[in-house]
Amino acid sequence: MKEVDARGLSCPEPLMLTAEALKGASGPVKILVTEPHQRMNVEKYAKDHGRKSTASEKDGYFEVVIE
Amino acid sequence: MNLSDSKKKLALAGVICGLVAACLAFLGNPANMAFCIACFIRDTAGALGMHQAEVVQYARPEIIGLVLGAFIISVGTKEYRSTGGSSPMIRFVLGMIIVIGSLVFLGCPLRMIIRMSAGDLNAWVALIGFILGVATGVFALKKGFSLGRAHAVNRVGGTMLPVIMVGILILALCSSVLKASETGPGSMHAPLIASLVGGLVFGAVAQKSRMCFAGSIRDVILMKNFDLFSVIAGLFVVMLVFNLATGRFVVGFDTPGIIAHSNHLWNILGMYTVGFAATLAGGCPLRQLILAGQGSSDSAVTVMGMFVGAALCHTLGIAASGTAMNAETQEIVAGAVPPHGKVACIVCIIVCFVIAFTNKRDEAK
Q: Residue B1 falls within a domain, yes or no?
């Protein structure tokens, strides 16, 4: 699974990296972010682009898997 | 509680913050300033003796409230994260640049919207510069600009700015050590408790809605996303209604008494500087205060840069003057940007370009 580590990056970098990763991926993509609003932004971006996503909280960061 | 998952909620957040600003303007804050982050940081820096401009010295409780409101709500909703280490000195310089650009224009992006809602055409001119500045920042982001990763730091580290704000509040309430203007904009303010409560509410709503004036334009340019723009629209509408209802809506360029000038080029370049630097720093002056409140030491450093930049603006003669009425002759005296302000603004733009194109994401550790 393609993985994007956007932990600790300022907005809008996590969303830019997510968009870039989704463009080149046919399968699921895993996005790692630090802030709750970044998790929400990534989930919303996936939804707006017709992709399903599931998020879970890890130790100090969030993991969002976009199907 | 989430205020950022729909355009309606975001617009509501803008309306709430607009009501806070309108109430504070009604209760005594300077006309069409109402709630300006750059001006209020400048006033607070003056109260602390960081500059000696006697007409702009007052520890604005709104600034204290914003940081504490964001801190309290982020702790209460488990969004508080103590982080730091993402190019702190560059962020400090960007904070200085944001305030220098703001005081060349005479207002932060929030005040630009408030001035626009009062019919001040200079603010509409400045909006062109702000959009171009954000667009330049977006161009840099697309070319790979990054200030690098922030990391988790000691939990107490993120509380430093809120603690400093509590300290300033205690000094304001319990001592006479802070300076306070007797004339000029610094002497015009709502009652302390109203300003503090207004700041707390504004800070909490801004934290939950991710309100950001640079971010809203950035998202439109970068992602064609109008979510954050809804906040600005809500705030603008409320302030427009307030100004129309209270007779404060005056369309014009040379309106005396509203702390603005009509140097069009410098209004554009001032806000260009702010838009560019704020996009590189990851948020407008308001957003920096909110992020600092929710534990970001990097944003707290940016805020410190804003305090130092504000002080420099008044010790080095960088800040612009507003158009005013001469009380004796009844003639309008046009406001202007002093030569030092023009030089500083150009230097700031050059520094922004250097920062924008020498910090790449692939170099981010």
A: no
Contact A9 B149 (CB under 8 A): yes
Query: Domains of chain A: which residue ranges?
Result: 2-66
Please check the confidence at residue A60 and state whether its pLDDT lies above 80. yes
Which chain A residues have any C-beta within 8 angstroms of a chain B C-beta?
A: 7-13, 15-16, 19, 34-37, 40, 44-45, 60
Give residue-wise pLDDT tens across range B337-349: 999 999 999 999 9
Q: Is there a contact between B282 and A10 if contact means CB atoms under 8 Å apart?
A: yes
Neighbours of B20 (CB within 10 A): 26
In the predicted model, what is the mean pLDDT of residues A23-30?
86
- Range B170-173, long-range pairs (CB < 8 A, 24+ positions): B171/B59, B172/B47, B172/B59, B172/B61
CA A45/CA A29 separation, integer angstroms: 13
pTM score, whole prediction: 0.94
Asked whether residue B214 is assigned to any structural domain, the reply reads yes
Ranges of residues in chain B whose predicted pLDDT is under 70? 1, 362-365
Reported ipTM: 0.91
Which chain A residues are closer than 8 Å to B282 by Cβ?
10-11
Contact flag B219-A40 (C-beta cutoff 8 Å): no
CATH topology of domain A2-66: Translation Initiation Factor IF3 (3.30.110)
Q: Percent of chain B, pLDDT > 70?
A: 98
Per the structure, how many domains does chain B have?
1
Residue B2 resides in a domain? no
- Tell me which chain B residue has its CA closest to the CA of residue A43: B5
Q: What range does the domain containing B336 cover?
A: 7-363
